[in-house]
Amino acid sequence: MNILLKWKDEYSVNIPNIDLQHKNFFNILNRLYTAILDANTKSVVEIIIEEMFFRIPF
């Protein structure tokens, strides 16, 4: 996987559940970045975007 964003401890808000959500968001964005760089099909990119909206509470 290509890394666009790397989690750093300085990003922590010291609330474990929120930090975990943020780490998951970084992971999803890195997967999306990799899918785009690898020229994956539109459906692969759409699946990752859908996951982002369903797993990350906004």
Count of beta strands: 0
User: What is the subunit organization of this protein?
Assistant: single chain
Q: Helical stretch count?
A: 2
Overall mean pLDDT: 87
Distance between the termini: 25 Å
Radius of gyration: 12 Å
Low-pLDDT runs: none
Helicity, as a percent range: 55-70%
Query: Pairing-aware structural class of the strands and helices?
Result: mainly alpha
| Shape annotation | flat
Characterization of the model:
- The chain has helices at residues 16-37, 42-55.
- It contains two helices and no strands.
- α1 runs antiparallel to α2 (42-55).
- 2% of the residues are buried.
- It has one domain.
- The chain is flat, with a radius of gyration of 12 Å.
- It is mostly helical and 58 residues long.
The gist of it:
The protein is mostly helical and 58 residues long. The chain has helices at 16-37, 42-55.
Describe the SSE topology.
Elements: H1 16-37, H2 42-55
Helix pairs in contact: 1-2
Defining traits:
single chain, 58 residues, mainly alpha, 0% strand, flat
